[in-house]
Design a protein that fits this description.
The structure holds 3 protein chains of 3 kinds. By secondary structure, chain B is mostly helical. Chain B has 18 helices and 2 strands. Chain C is about 50% helix and about 0% strand. Chain C is built from 13 helices and no strands. The chains are: A mainly alpha, B mainly alpha, C mainly alpha. Bound molecules: protoporphyrin IX containing FE (HEM).
Chain lengths: ~55, ~550, ~240
């Protein structure tokens, strides 16, 4: 493959954009997936629990 | 300190220290006519000194099973003390550097104290010395509490903490001698850089090993930020510091990259050092200590996830906003500008999340200066990211770049955000760690808070003024179409602001000193160990006293 | 998707990989193309490398942190071009390992300071800036004239520079120490070699005003006097201001 400057810049720009969109969709899907709600709610509260020693 | 280590770990420590001492000796011998020889001696002395400590405690009884089943906090305690010590050191040099621009004769005619040499002493002292130690100390605490698991062993956290501080000492002592790569926030020379890589790998391994042994299924979001900090700083550090040393007996090296490529690499590093060292790590702190101190869960956990990936993804593109109108190709400049502006979204999401968490607890914020430190930090985080996105716009940058405006922006972030969130977290953490009911004096926290806030405001306003005046004077034309002011004219106009800035910095330094006194008195508090119970306390002081040998 | 992320998160390693991948791409996309191009770096056939003395001076510039107050990058803005000279081209810092573009102008830009002042002015200014410019806040660098320049290892420096891609010839590397001496001592036997290896345009003078001994002052002034003069590509290309 001939990697001249124009090709590299072009690749960088086009793939950069696709990558950005895919990533955004992925993160949003994960965050708002209904099944995850419980985990997040638990995580939120968990740090306020008493944490005097490691769990065994 | 030694009593907490097992026999095997004590032997391992001695082995590692022997290797370190030999490296020091080798540098001292090969580089006897070069500054690297001095560094060899420093390494040798540190290794011998630490070996003495290990040997002195070598026959102390080993920690028993009960002790090994608790959280391991000795390194966190040491890290807090080191962070405060570096804070005073770094801020002191900051005030000195500021004073030099008002009164240039304050170098006392010595080479080591001239502006160009002590400016990096200041930046490294505060960013890496203060900020880095605060990050290491808090990360080890947060990591254990949120995973409900003890650190994997006792040796590696000490290796990281002490090794990291050795790096800072090598860096700073090097600048005094004129050893620098001249790369902003990466001035330390090649051998110190290699050492930091080793330390960092161990740090990463502590994290990953603890996470794998976690009892809590979900990894709490604060750890995501700490992890991003550790990982990305490693990538940045390695790439940016690629260099060829003149020889193994020379401290000096030549960077692998040159010209534009080097400029882009340095600012890719520079801006992301801001993003992942000064932002991500401290956001980790915020996401744990702020809800914990306020006694309320974070406002939106989902928002914290979205802003996390937003920051991790987008910061990496923003570095080129430091190179507007330079010889860097224009498309790269535009890309950097665009991402810098979009970055405002995840940044404000984080700041807003923090403030919304406090909504409904304003009474606490009013009464508790510790929580107020954290709140003000979130506000300054919001302000300086807004300003940053604004300054990344090319037209604005044409005015602000090269001027004190940049410095004002940096310090709105560094003083208002980084330092304030650290002080707040440390004030929350100290009573937990030393098992005191509260800090020695809440009045003094109050005093520290107002000194810090006043110092920041004076600093930032004087630099805004001077920066904008400077920028405007440089580009003002008179009617005949020639430049109206000489460079020296602009220099004269800066003088009052440089004095004001020095004063603001002094207030901030005083605040830190008050903080040190308060922490010291808390640790030494009369009556020794106060037995504590209550929701605010991590560990009701059931722990046997022998465990605390590190103090 | 959520299951995927959950797994990712369960195994901490997967999470680590995700952070690395997500964060590296931005840098890669921006930086990688800069390495494939010749367009970012213009052609400048007349570009010459730093002499050993100038390189030593550059290292002193780095050592003293002059870059903390002085930029070496004139932007493509009208007022900058009028104040400091033709805007900087990428090619001009082609041999700068590392670059010293700087980010703060507490003092003026120095990208084209070469030849603006006499050697004597530079020496007096470095000795104590306030003797020359009374309101200056620049530090005094009195020790530069007292310190003898370390020249015996300059060959190693040139060698390291050639390893990172600067076209120093073997002759240049072998003669580095003598060339440094020769450049600061126009009457010595070594001066001719400097011209032979680095070209007619090289400044060969007793920069600190004292022939015989090569001081750090000699080196730094030699470096300052060459700034902006390694090539004249900029003057040629700077016909129109871009914006
Ligand atoms: C949205 C986030 C941010 C953006 C877009 C941003 C943007 C910028 C811009 C445009 C500059 C000026 C570059 C120049 O013209 O020289 C700058 C400089 C700087 N910023 Fe930020 N900033 C952000 C957040 C922060 C934060 C939170 C901190 C501190 C904790 C910080 C610390 C710095 C530092 C250290 C510099 C100094 C660079 C120098 O020495 O020239 N930034 N930033």
């Amino acid at each position: 493959m001939d990697l001249d400057h124009q090709t590299v810049v072009g690749l960088a720009k086009s793939w950069g954009l696709i990558y950005l969109l895919v990533l955004a969709v992925g993160v949003l899907a994960y965050t708002f997936w209904p099944k995850n709600k419980k985990r997040f709610d638990r995580a939120k509260e968990s740090i306020l629990d008493k944490d005097d020693k490691p769990w065994n | 300190m030694i009593a907490g280590l097992t026999k095997g770990e004590r032997q391992l420590s001695l082995a590692v220290l022997t290797v370190l001492a030999l490296c020091g000796l080798a540098f001292a011998a090969i580089g006897h006519d070069d500054p690297i020889g001095t560094h060899g001696f420093i390494i040798l002395l540190v290794a011998i000194g630490l070996a003495c400590v290990v040997i002195a405690g070598y026959y102390a009884p080993e920690p028993d099973k009960e002790q090994l089943s608790r959280y391991y906090d000795d390194p966190t305690r040491a890290g807090i003390v080191l962070a405060m010590a570096w804070a005073v050191f770094g801020l002191f040099f900051g005030v000195w550097v500021a004073a030099l621009l008002a009164w240039p004769e304050l170098t006392f005619d010595a080479a080591w104290s001239s502006f160009g040499r002590i400016r990096p002493v200041h930046t490294t002292g505060v960013i890496f010395g203060f900020g880095g130690n605060a990050l290491i100390a808090t990360s080890l605490h947060v990591l254990q509490r949120t995973t409900r698991a003890r650190l994997p062993d006792q040796f590696s956290p000490w290796f990281v903490l002490i090794g990291y501080n050795l790096f800072c000492v090598l860096a700073v002592s090097g600048y005094f001698m004129g050893l620098t790569q001249s790369k902003e926030y990466a001035e330390a020379e090649w051998y110190a850089d290699i050492w930091l890589v080793i330390v960092w790998v161990v740090y990463f391994l502590i994290y990953i090993r603890t996470l794998q042994r976690r009892k809590e299924p979900h990894i709490y979001v604060a750890n995501w930020y700490y992890m991003a900090f550790i990982l990305v700083v490693a990538i940045l550090h390695i790439v940016n510091n690629l260099a060829v040393p003149v020889s193994f007996g020379h401290a000096k090296s030549y960077s692998l990259f040159s010209g534009v490529q080097d400029a882009m690499t340095q600012w890719w590093y520079g801006h992301n050092a801001v993003a992942f060292f000064l932002t991500a790590g401290f956001l980790g702190m915020m996401y744990y200590y702020l809800p914990k101190r306020a006694g309320r869960p974070i406002f939106s956990y989902r928002l914290s996830i979205i802003s996390f990936w937003g920051i991790v993804f987008m910061y990496m593109w923003a570095g080129s906003h430091h190179l507007h109108y330079t010889a860097l190709p224009q498309w790269v400049q535009t890309l950097g500008m665009t991402f810098s502006v979009i970055l405002l979204v995840p940044s404000w999401a984080s700041a807003g999340n923090a403030l919304a968490t406090l909504n409904g607890a304003w009474g606490k914020v009013r009464d508790d200066a510790t929580l107020r430190f954290m709140m003000v930090a979130a506000v300054f985080y919001g302000l300086s990211t807004f300003e940053g996105s604004f300054m990344a716009i090319r037209a604005v940058n044409s005015l602000s770049h090269y001027t004190d405006w940049t410095i004002g922006h940096v310090h709105a972030g560094a003083l208002g955000w980084v330092a304030m969130i650290s002080f707040g977290s440390i004030y929350a953490l100290v009573p937990w760690m030393w098992k005191r009911e509260r800090m020695y004096s809440s009045k003094l926290i109050e005093v520290h808070f107002w000194l810090a806030l006043a110092g920041t405001v004076v600093y930032v306003f004087s630099m805004w003024n001077s920066g904008i005046i400077q920028g405007l004077m440089w580009r003002t034309y008179n009617e005949s179409g020639t430049l109206a002011y000489s460079f020296v004219d602009s220099l004269v106009a800066m003088h009052p602001y440089y004095i004001a800035r020095t004063f603001g910095g002094l207030l901030f330094l005083l605040g830190a000193l008050v903080g040190c006194y308060n922490i010291w008195m808390t640790i030494r508090q009369a009556g020794g160990r106060v037995v504590l119970q209550g929701p605010d306390v991590d560990e009701p002081a059931l722990a046997p006293i022998a465990l605390q040998a590190g103090e | 998707m959520p299951n995927f992320h959950r797994k990712l998160e369960r195994s901490a390693i997967g999470f680590v990989v995700a952070i690395i991948v997500v964060s590296s791409i931005g840098g890669f996309v921006e930086i990688a193309p800069l390495f494939t191009i010749d367009e970012t770096v213009e052609k400048a056939p007349d570009m010459r490398v730093y002499t050993p003395l100038e390189l030593a001076g550059r290292n002193i510039y780095v050592r003293e942190g002059c870059y903390a107050c002085h930029s070496q990058m004139i932007r493509t803005l009208r007022d900058e071009v009028e104040r400091y000279g033709p805007y900087s081209l990428a090619v001009e810092s082609q041999y700068d390992h590392p670059m010293l573009w700087g980010s703060k102008r507490t003092g003026p830009d120095l990208a084209r300071i070469g030849g603006k002042y006499s050697d004597a002015w530079q020496v007096a200014h470095l000795r104590n800036p306030r003797d020359v410019v009374p309101v200056s806040v620049m530090p005094a660098y009195r020790w530069l004239e007292d310190n003898t320049l370390r020249t015996e290892d300059l060959g190693l420096h040139l060698k390291a520079m050639s390893r990172v891609g600067v076209p120093y010839t073997q002759a240049m590397i072998d003669n580095a120490t003598n060339d440094a001496y020769g450049q600061a001592n126009p009457d010595s036997n070594f001066a001719a070699g400097v011209v032979e290896r680095y070209g007619e345009a090289t400044n060969i003078r007793a920069f600190d005003g004292e022939p015989g001994r090569v001081t750090e002052m000699d080196a730094l002034v030699a470096y300052l006097q060459i700034l902006g003069k390694l090539t004249n590509a900029a003057t040629a290309a700077n016909v129109a201001i871009k914006e």
